[in-house]
Each structure stands twice: as structure tokens, then as C-alpha cells.
Hints:
The complex is a heterotrimer of chains A (321), B (316) and C (331).
Chain A: H1 2-11, H2 31-36, H3 39-52, H4 54-72, H5 107-143, H6 145-160, H7 163-174, H8 179-189, H9 192-205, H10 209-216, H11 221-232, H12 234-258, H13 268-277, H14 280-283, H15 286-314
Helix pairs in contact in A: 1-9, 3-15, 4-5, 4-15, 5-6, 5-8, 5-9, 5-12, 5-13, 5-15, 6-9, 10-11, 12-13, 12-15, 13-15
Chain B: E1 3-14, E2 17-29, E3 34-38, H1 45-51, E4 59-68, E5 71-72, H2 78-82, E6 89-92, H3 106-116, H4 121-135, H5 151-162, E7 169-173, H6 181-196, E8 202-207, H7 210-216, E9 219-224, E10 227-233, H8 234-239, H9 244-251, E11 302-305, E12 308-310
Chain C: H1 2-28, H2 34-45, H3 51-61, H4 67-79, H5 94-127, H6 131-146, H7 149-163, H8 183-219, H9 223-230, H10 235-272, H11 277-286, H12 290-318, H13 320-323
Amino acid sequence: xxxxxxxxxxxxxxxxxxxxxxxxxxxxxxxxxxxxxxxxxxxxxxxxxxxxxxxxxxxxxxxxxxxxxxxxxxxxxxxxxxxxxxxxxxxxxxxxxxxxxxxxxxxxxxxxxxxxxxxxxxxxxxxxxxxxxxxxxxxxxxxxxxxxxxxxxxxxxxxxxxxxxxxxxxxxxxxxxxxxxxxxxxxxxxxxxxxxxxxxxxxxxxxxxxxxxxxxxxxxxxxxxxxxxxxxxxxxxxxxxxxxxxxxxxxxxxxxxxxxxxxxxxxxxxxxxxxxxxxxxxxxxxxxxxxxxxxxxxxxxxxxxxxxxxxxxxxxxxxxx
Amino acid sequence: xxxxxxxxxxxxxxxxxxxxxxxxxxxxxxxxxxxxxxxxxxxxxxxxxxxxxxxxxxxxxxxxxxxxxxxxxxxxxxxxxxxxxxxxxxxxxxxxxxxxxxxxxxxxxxxxxxxxxxxxxxxxxxxxxxxxxxxxxxxxxxxxxxxxxxxxxxxxxxxxxxxxxxxxxxxxxxxxxxxxxxxxxxxxxxxxxxxxxxxxxxxxxxxxxxxxxxxxxxxxxxxxxxxxxxxxxxxxxxxxxxxxxxxxxxxxxxxxxxxxxxxxxxxxxxxxxxxxxxxxxxxxxxxxxxxxxxxxxxxxxxxxxxxxxxxxxxxx
Amino acid sequence: xxxxxxxxxxxxxxxxxxxxxxxxxxxxxxxxxxxxxxxxxxxxxxxxxxxxxxxxxxxxxxxxxxxxxxxxxxxxxxxxxxxxxxxxxxxxxxxxxxxxxxxxxxxxxxxxxxxxxxxxxxxxxxxxxxxxxxxxxxxxxxxxxxxxxxxxxxxxxxxxxxxxxxxxxxxxxxxxxxxxxxxxxxxxxxxxxxxxxxxxxxxxxxxxxxxxxxxxxxxxxxxxxxxxxxxxxxxxxxxxxxxxxxxxxxxxxxxxxxxxxxxxxxxxxxxxxxxxxxxxxxxxxxxxxxxxxxxxxxxxxxxxxxxxxxxxxxxxxxxxxxxxxxxxxxx
Lengths: 321, 316, 331
């Protein structure tokens, strides 16, 4: 999750003018070639580089492989992830690939169900956070003035509030029943750095010629943001979403591990919680607690690596020639 | 001859092949000469300016050579070139506003830079202070951080720093584009004064603002689509240009008012050719009102008058 | 500079206000009054000693007084340091229970944050310079920073404590010792401290290393770096400047990461049964000890705000731009 901080940190480095300005991260103009190249060619270029970038391709393959596993594997089982189906505490075998728990539950089945929840919470939580952060960032950056001041204040407050602590309180009292509602709360508390970064970018874009032109031609603020500003930072927004996805996954895992996850749903965090709770460490049942953490690390790590690759794709200066 | 450039070709490496941003330039700049280098964006003027001091990572020296004061300048070799930078060739960058490290006091940064180049700061400090006086900066700015200086002050600071070691050649890259009109004038005048005081021997002022460069330059060289179009004394270029492109460029400038030549030329249909696979022959011929059959052959850049070079069949 | 601090302090005070209000609001408006339920349960199991809890409850959540009055009462109690009585550790006051646990959490957090930040920045800067190091640091750093804190704790506890037997598995100190100022006790503390510290350190280290590596690469493309190169400055000097300038966003990043680091410490403590705030929170959740939970929440908020403020001060010391009257910087 440190990447989130990095992103927000570099976005807000104060410029020489003292005003928080656009970071180096957004490739708005890409050298003498792309300056003349229209948008379509730029997209084609990006795709071309993306498919040749080892980090993007490798990361993408890992993520997609896990996604496929989570979507497909559970379909082949006619029993549930919490049913006591096998021998107790047995190691990985041909029948139970990841062994069984102390109760005889199938660890592999729990694992693939956990991957499902992981993707769901990442998608929904990250998506919601991206939506809130971008909306607030666009509005604050484009409209400015008092609206900006107020939104900035709100952003700063949510930013310094330790999100996990708030979520613990909320979850303890409210009780979470489903992955989407967990994702909802995670999304509500992880948008501020996005808002900050997007605001800074919007701020620097709103004085550009093409935005002026759109304004003069009578386009409304909403349309300008949607049609002129957002497309110009689409690559950046996409990368932001990837980071938010990873952040949400880690957040959810932490909550699940504390025992504040959704009830009745298997997750990778809950697997670790169960393993620790039922002394899997002391009993040496490594097949129970190693896969869930490894799964999260692989998915989130692959996403982060993909992000570095995308950074190189969108930002020609970072490309190796 | 202070600077002699011979058939210089510098290409940008890109995915779809080399962009021939500078495709064979041959010219000289005399001692004491201030040469204005004009053209639309994408004409290769910035590439030429950069090539003479530092190729960036995507630029590749393809052909040609550069001589400064009779000695070859190793522009294709980053490490060998380092010895010449600052001392023999120096640069006033376009981004003078942000050229100084924001977290170092200016004086400290200068002393660290000089130290790294084997020059004692204490020995050069009196001269540095004299030059600060000359451009109207207080000596205390050396104890300031860049953020404490106004835009004009930063510009002057960079001017002083870049020329501190009396380089033979100074490249000023769009130095005035970020400034307001009165400051532009002051900066331009300072450039002339630095030349007159022999802080720098000769100067290339890269600009798209012909009317400004006309006031300070001895000669003006016009580029189009990676090629040299015309080079002549400043008043000749402005009053009696021979290349059709220069003629259109000059006539499109009103007496006063709009002074930028990087807008699309009014009244000339089309745009400059792409430099990935530029057509053979004269690169201006598609837009040229005077184009004729011979223009499919590339016109050489030849001296048609004393000190007046043109690359156009019609001008010969 | 005064404006910079005034603004920061205003935000922190406002945040604290919001946190306290949330803390009061959430249990107050939950359906079924969970706090009352908790008290009822306690009064059954522990009927004699319920009086002080009832009193606190009536004061803060009481039904006889109007809402605004309850809210003010809550502030009044809070400012006197009264956060109620713990149910789990009845009849110890919440404040006392928490103050006992805080040193353990701080002992984990402060060294792991400072050391990981320092080491991560150093290694990240080195990685930006050397290809082979970059090729190792980058994947390793991303793997570490993508690792859930509790999992690395689980792996360390299992491998180094249970299998290898080098370190103790659980607790803040050996069960057969009483806290004292003896060398034996201190040694035991240190042994129990090391693995939780190491887990926190490793995950955070990965993040800082990557952050610094990426920041330096951007800094080396900055205008001042290009200008210095045009003037023939050696790479060494330019890298030195880039490192120093890259530290500033890393410092901002530290402020932004505080919440995540605290969360990491909480779950790490849970894995190792380390007697800090994390284990306290787990116990509070399992025992439905709401007063304790809310107290812990407020302590965490206060801690994070203080740490933010400290980082602001450091920022002003290292970034001349904040000192010259310009705004900017962390949070």
C-alpha cells in the first residue's frame, strides 16, 4: 500500500510557485512525435508498448490467471467451502490440493472462494474510491474558489483520519454482511489521495487552450470535465484505479483478519484468521495459512508491477531505448 | 570562425522509425556573431540548439560534425562532451524559471557546480558579483532560494550563471517566451551586452519570435522541416528574403502586434511534411506558390550573395 | 510559515473533532443500543460493580438529558480523561488499560517506521543507479509492499519462532517473568519484540524503497537536473540533489502512510499476541467491550495527528520553500 502514498506524495510536491501543481506523472505531451500525432495514434502507440512491456504483460497474466481461477474453480465443487468433507488436518494431496483444515474443510476450495471475494472487494472498493476521489478532484480543481476550499478541507480531514481505525469502529457496531457493503465502507475512506492528485492535475489542465476553447464554445462544466479534461488524464486515472484496487484488497484482508469481515463469505483474510485462531501455526498446518497470504501478495504485487510498466508505457521518458 | 557545423544530422528514435528532425545542416557562426535561429515548432531549430550542447536520450547523431574554435566538438559522446559544456559551450534553457535546484541556496548550488567542474568558487566570486551588479541583481540573491526570486530575476540569474565561465558559444533556447514584453526586451539587451563585453564570443538565439530576434541578431537563419532554408544578415532576412518560405513568414507578420511565427501560416494551405519519411526534394514545395518541376530535386544551401545562403532553385 | 502551521493545526483540530463526534455518534444511533446491551450483560455477570459504568453511560448516552447535553457531557468526560470503564478488564478504567498497552505499540511502530524509511530511501536511491540492484530491488520491493502485514507476521512466527525456535512466538515478555528493571526482563522484552518489529519493518521497507526509486527517476528528468547536465555537472552531484528533493515527497508519503502503518502494527500484534493496542482492540471486539474499543480508536487518532504534526515540523526544517512563506508540504 505504500504505493498509494507514493502516488499521493509525488502528486503534491510543492512546486517552485508554492502552489501544488501537476506532478511529473502525467504524460500530457509526449515529445516531438506525439505532439503532431492525433489521439488515436497515441492510443495505438500505448497499446503497442503495453503489449511489449514485460511488466505489463507479466503482471497482467498473473492477475488474469488468478481471476480465472477464482471464477471457474468453485464451479467444479459440489460441496461448500465450510463443509467438513475430508480427513482432518491432512496435507496437500491429489484429492485436496491444498490439504484440509483441522475440521476437514477443503483449503483449496476456500482459497478459490477467497480469490473471488478478493477481486470483488478490489473492484467495488477501488471503483467507488476512484469515483469519489475523481469527482471531488475534478470539481475542486475545475470550479476552484470556495468549493475548492471546502472540498480541500474535507479531503484533508479524511486523509489524516486513520481509515482502518474508523472502519473497525463502524464494522463492530454495524456488522458487515456482504462483500459489497464491506467494499462500500472501504471505498468511502480511501479516496482522499486520489482527490488531491486529480485536483492538482485538473488545476493545471483547466487553463489550457483546448479547455478555453471548449468553454468559449459554450460547453458546460460537466461536459468539459468529461470530454476535455478526463480523457487527457485517462492513463493516469487508470493507473490510479489499479492502485486503489490493490489498496482495497489489503484493507479488506486486514478487516477480515481481525474478524470484522462479512459473515458467511470466505475470504483470504478470514482464512488467515481461522488458521491463527485454530493454532495452525503451532500444529504446522502450513498449507492452511501460506496460500491465502501468497495469493494476496501475488495479485496485489502483480497489479503494482503492471502499474510500473504502464507508467513506462504512458511516459516515454521512462522508456528504455 | 567560431562555430562550424558540417552536414549535421540528428534523428529522434521512435517506434515507427527515425524522425529526421535535423536533416543535414551546414553553416558557420562567426566570432562575435549573434545568430537568430527561427522557424515553426517542429522545424528542427530546437533540435539543432540541443545538439550543440547535449543530446537527450532519444536523440541520435547520425552524421556530420561540429567544430568550435577550430577544434572538433564531440557532440555524440556524452562523457567527452562534458569537458566542453559550460566552459566552451553553454546554454540558457527555455525553462529558466525552473532551472535552479529549488532546495539549494543559489550561491551554494553555484559553488557546488563550479567545484565539480574544477573551478574555485572563491576565485570566481568577485567576477560573479560584478556580473550580478551588471544585470541589476543584488548580491544577496546568492543567499536566497530560487523561490524567493521573481521570474525576471531567475532569468537574469541563469543568464549570469550560464555565461560565468566565458564560453565561446552560448545557446539561448526560447529565452524570452515565458516573459512579459518589457522583460523580454531587457533580456534581449542583456544578451547583446554580454556579447559586447565578450563574456561570450558568439551566440545562437533559438526563437519563434522573429521581430524580437531582429532587434538583437546580426544574422538570422530560418529552418523549415528539418532543413536550413535561408541564412543572411538580419535586415536582409527581414527586408529582402529570397526563400519563398521566409518571404511568407515575414509577410505574415504584421508590423506590430502578432509576432509569433509558430502559428499556421495564414493563406498557405497544408502543413509541414511529417519527418518520419519526408518526401525527397524541397520539403516546402507542396505549399510553395513558386514550386516548379525542378523542386523534386533537393535544392542545395548555397551562398547567393555575400553572407546570404538560400536553399531554393528560384533564388539562384 | 505561521500560516502554514496555523492551517495544519486547524485541520488536525477539526479532524479530532470529527473523530470524537463520530465516536459518540456511531454507538448512539445504532439500532438496539449495543452499549446498553453490553452493560446489561455485564450487570448480570457482575452485578455489584456496575454502578460506575451506569453512571458514565447515563452521563454520555443517558436518555433523560437532551441530545446536545449528552454530546457536551461526552466532551466533558473526555477532556477529563474519562473514557469509561473496561468491561473486559473490569473494573479498570479504559484510559488506564490503554495507557498500559500504548508503550508496546509505540515500541514497535517508532523504530520500524524510522528504520524502514531510512533504509528504504537509501536502498531505493541505490537501485535507481545500478541496473542489477534495480532488477532485484524492484520485484522484491513490490512483493513486500503487496504483502499483507499479518501474513508476513504469520510466516515469520511460523518459520523463525515455531520451526527454528530462535525467537519466542507470543507475548510481550516471557510468561514466567514479572515486569521489572532487570537485565533478564529487558532481554526477554527484546526477544519478544524482534519478530513483530521485523514484520512491520519488512513490509514498510519495500514501499519506501520503491517510492524512492521511482521518485529519483522522475527527479532526474526535472528541469534543474537537465540544466545541470547541460552545464556538465557530474552525475554524482545531480543524483545528490535528486535524492534530497525526492526525500520531500517521501516525507509527505510518510504522513499519508501513518494510518496504514498503525493498522499494520495492530494486526501484527494480534499474530504475535503482543500486548499492545492491537491485541487490546481484538479483545475489545471479542468481548464486546465498546468503551475500550472507542477509547483505543481515539488514542490512535490522537497518535496519528501528533505524528502528522511532527512530520510537518520536519518538513519545514528540510524544505526551504515552506520557510519562505509559501505553503505546501505534507497533508
